[in-house]
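Internal tracking record. Fields below are filled automatically when a chain is submitted to the structure queue. Please do not edit lines marked as system-generated. If the sequence contains nonstandard residues, flag them in the REMARKS field before resubmitting.
Queue: standard
Priority: normal
Entity type: single polypeptide chain
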Amino acid sequence: MLLELPELPFSLRPYGPDGDWSYADGVLTGTAGPRQDRFVPPTGETLEPASDAPRLLGAPEGDFQLIARVRVGFGAAFDAGVLYVHVGERAWAKLCLEYSPDAATVCTVVTRGHSDDCNSFTVDGDSVWLRVSRTGRAFAFHASLDGERWTFVRLFTLGEEEESGAALVGFLVQAPTGEGCTAAFDRLEFRPTWPADLRDGS
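SYSTEM-GENERATED OUTPUT FOLLOWS
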């Protein structure tokens, strides 16, 4: 199943567990089932298949910015709506609005074999704007409270696997500890450019 959104110049395809993805009136909605997550614990030595969560991904070309406001129906710890980047089975990253541990928090996970985990700042309420950008091998994460002024969160690459094929980018919903979580993404925007300055709020 391919999903075409008028705001995006590329098709989206579901990956992982069924996310019951739907789009109507400018709002993309997805749902994670009980204890669904995408994380490879850094404390473990095994590289067994990573836990998984519903993903909806496509392959934009060249430099880009993908922007969305995410609203999460928080019910349990670490429920999240996510912008997601994937370049390989052990090379991917998440920019999340997550309930962690007792407040809505912008956090990131970058996985190169194992996952790391980094909280950035808390958010009043259940929504925030998220932006993922790419130029060449570099990715940047930003978040915003109003969709106008952006806070720089992270700049990174995902290693050599990225060179073997096009990066996939899109959306993920997770519910690592709870019985399920629904997230809605609206105000979707795609820009075929890298931000002029990562740290000046633009």
